[in-house]
Design goal:
With 280 residues, the protein is of the alpha+beta class. The chain is 30% helix and 24% strand. The strands form two sheets. Strands 1, 4, 5, 6, 7, 8, 9, 10 and 11 form a nine-stranded antiparallel beta sheet that branches. The protein has a two-stranded antiparallel sheet with strand order 2-3. Strand 2 and strand 3 form a beta hairpin. It is elongated and about 65 Å long. The chain starts with 27 loop residues before the first strand and ends in a 9-residue tail after the last helix.
Length: 280
């Protein structure tokens, strides 16, 4: 089973299990699969990943429920959360803050790590590579960020406010994206939905003109700002986000007959076929 073929919906957004600064490199002390036990030297199958996360707050990853809290001989104190089909176990925690059956939302602190964190994931009883699962979570966060929607996991930005044509509908748009963005991305990946050619051409034009104007790499790039944009490049980010959000809304109209509630009949009628040329 591959997590890329499974969608995880979350009304509260998404969050990584613990926070690390941009300067920190997250250390894996023991990987997934066949490993050598650090104490006995024996080979064994490790069902999770151990992170060198000492005494850190641990967070819920999405909208879900606590389905287990206890102690066992292998993982000592643990807490298990369930998000849709996925169950996630946090082992070797120093303290769990919630009890069985309690609901959780993304970014809610549920425990604190001990000397390290054992992180284990299963889907409908089948054990998964936790790094693939975390890549999916991080991808969901990144997609929300790319659409101009702030996730719970803080990514660096360019230090300026990026405005879009949809700011007045931001709350409704956020809820719509949290519900449908994974489906939208999966439909693009599988070819079930193809963005309009004019949107792709507009993106090419924006980036070509921005390169001519030397908007890129004026600051040190990072994940939240991979092009190294400064405040001078804010119009570029706004135009790109307008196009991406517009395409998402185009998808919602075509595939799900769903529109922003503030749109009147005339806007709904013209939106899908409307040309939206973008000029710098």
């Amino acid at each position: 089973m591959n997590t890329k073929d499974i969608l995880l919906e979350s009304a509260s957004g998404f969050m990584m299990p613990f926070e690390a600064s941009e300067e920190e490199e997250v250390q894996v002390s023991l990987g997934f699969g066949e490993q050598t036990h650090p104490m006995t030297g024996e080979r064994f199958h490790h069902r999770g990943v151990d992170f060198a996360a000492h005494d850190l707050p641990l967070f819920a990853l999405a909208t879900g429920t606590v389905v287990g809290v206890g102690t066992d001989a292998v993982h000592e104190n643990y807490i298990i959360t369930k998000y849709g089909k996925f169950e996630v176990k946090y082992g070797h925690v120093s303290e769990a803050y919630l009890t069985y059956g309690m609901p959780v939302t993304a970014g809610q602190q549920i425990a604190r790590s001990g000397n390290f964190l054992h992180f284990e994931v299963s889907c409908e009883g089948q054990v998964l590579d936790p790094m693939e699962f975390l890549a999916m979570i991080y991808g969901n966060i990144a997609q929300l960020e790319a659409m101009g929607i702030k996730g719970h996991y803080r990514l660096a930005n360019m230090g300026v406010k990026v405005q879009t044509d949809y700011d007045a509908d931001q709350e409704e748009l956020l809820q719509m994206m949290l519900r449908w963005l994974p489906v939208y991305m999966n439909d693009i990946r599988l070819g079930r939905y193809v963005p309009p050619a004019r949107m792709e051409q507009s993106l090419r034009n924006i980036f070509a003109q921005s390169a001519d104007r030397s908007y890129f790499f004026e600051t040190i790039p990072n994940y939240g700002n991979p092009l190294g944009l400064s405040s001078r490049g804010a119009p570029l980010a706004s135009k790109v986000q307008n196009l991406l959000i517009g395409d998402f809304l185009n998808y919602m109209a075509l595939r799900h007959d769903t529109y922003l509630s503030t749109w009147g009949d005339d806007v709904k009628k013209n939106f899908v076929s409307r040309q939206q040329p973008t000029a710098m």
